[in-house]
Amino acid sequence: MENHICPKCKGEEIKKGVMGATVGQVHMYPENKLRSKPSTISTEYCGNCGYIMSFYVDNPEDLG
Ligand SMILES: [Zn+2]
How far, in Å, is the centroid of ligand 1 from the Cα of 53? Predict the structure, then answer.
């Protein structure tokens, strides 16, 4: 996907981030397999207005 322009403010400063909690990092677990190995979640967001462009699981193959 080559869409690296913010749809809200037309900014081009798209940054990558990770979902964090107060302690540690937010992870994605497969439904009904909450004890299996989770994957971290990353985001891409606009560095200008803060609009979040996308969420994605870093290692979807790990989620089974
Ligand atoms: Zn923006």
Answer: 9
